[in-house]
Amino acid sequence: MSQLAGKLGIVFGVANKRSIAWAIAQAWHKAGVKLAFTYQGERLKENVEELAGTFGPDTLLMPCDVTKDEDIARVFAEVGQKFGELHLMLHSVAFAPKEALEGEFVNTSREAFRVAHDVSAYSLIALARGAAPLMTDGGSIIAMTYYGSEKVVPHYNVMGVAKAALEASTRYLAYDLGPKKIRVNCISAGPVNTLAARGIAGFTDMLKHYEAHAPLKRNVLPDELGATGTFLASDGAAAITGQVLYVDCGYQIMGM
Ligand code: NAD
Ligand code: 0WE
Predict the structure, then answer these.
(1) Residue 220: domain span
(2) Which residues contact 156 (CB under 8 A, 6 or more apart)?
(3) Collapsing DSSP states into helix, strand and coil, what is residue 11?
(4) How far apart are CA 91 and CA 94, in angstroms?
């Protein structure tokens, strides 16, 4: 029996079957975690309904735009009612206006900066504040990040700055929530072909670049992100908090 069996979790960021959030949700589900899901809005409702439905017809599913405090309040009120407590939370949400990922970083508008940071970084703080009171027996909070937070990845632009804020927020949250036995960590994934990655000019070349230069000479698989998510949720990671774990086939260690 898995040590995660019977635990209760909530997942933010499933858009479709390719979403990293879905890979981690499946791994948690296989480990016996009972899951609640949120989706961004009506546009994604059907998709997520179908995926979440594969875990049983009574799987808790709620809309949540993470830029809306009232949505977040409603989600955790409902989780409180239906679950009574919570052990795991996955934050797998990011957005920057498309034009900010196309041109030069120097041209980032005030509004694009605001939106990118609101959706991709501030939301972790708001969600952690919502989840923490329900994590009465301790917990594990995981957020998805990317290497563009620490090195320049051309065109990642304001998302890199927002990911730096997300990673720093992870450390401050780990400090605040540590006394409650709530751990907060980031998984820094290598590139994965998802909705958020598709349409990014040169993404296919980026996958090839990782294959050529990462020590493992390949790209990370969604299942491997799921396995890391399961590890970080487990007691095997009981002393790990405030960290960024690179799950990128070793790419991050390279200097050239
Ligand atoms: P995805 O498009 O499947 O997931 C992004 C999710 O963010 C979607 O479900 C979308 O609905 C959600 N979202 C955006 N704005 C929102 C809002 N206002 N309210 C609620 N939800 C909102 O793509 P993904 O690649 O699975 O991305 C998930 C996470 O993984 C992101 O944080 C991303 O930065 C990170 N990441 C992705 C890669 C990659 O190469 N795909 C690599 C490293 C990290
Ligand atoms: O975090 C991401 C992508 C997040 C993302 C994607 C989009 C595309 C559609 C945020 N906002 C938007 N806005 C849109 O309008 N990744 C880690 C994947 C990614 O995106 C890149 C990358 C990589 C890798 C953008 C440029 C360069 C590299």
Answers:
(1) 8-246
(2) 101, 146, 148
(3) strand
(4) 9
Q: How far apart are CA 182 and CA 176, in angstroms?
A: 9
In the reported structure, the alpha carbon of residue 138 is separated from the centroid of ligand 2 by a whole-number distance in angstroms of 32
Domain assignment present for 197: yes
> Would you say the CB of residue 92 lies under 6 angstroms from ligand 1?
yes
* Structural domain total, the chain: 1
CATH for 166: 3.40.50.720
Ligand 1 atom closest to 159 (CA)? 34
- pLDDT value at 1 more than 60: no
Specify the 3-state DSSP secondary structure of 115: helix
Q: Residue 251 falls within a domain, yes or no?
A: no
Ligand 2 mean position, distance from CA 191 (Å): 10
Q: Does residue 92 contact residue 20 with C-beta atoms inside 8 Å? A: yes
pLDDT (tens digit, 9 = 90+) per residue, 154-179?
999 999 999 999 999 999 999 999 99
Residue 198 resides in a domain: yes
Segment 121-132, tens digit of pLDDT? 999 999 999 999
Task: Report which protein residue has its CA nearest ligand 1's atom 21.
Answer: 40
Q: Could you tell me if the CB of 119 is within 6 A of ligand 1?
A: yes
Q: Which two tokens stand for residue 255?
A: 């200097």
Q: Report whether 178 contacts 170 (CB < 8 A).
A: no
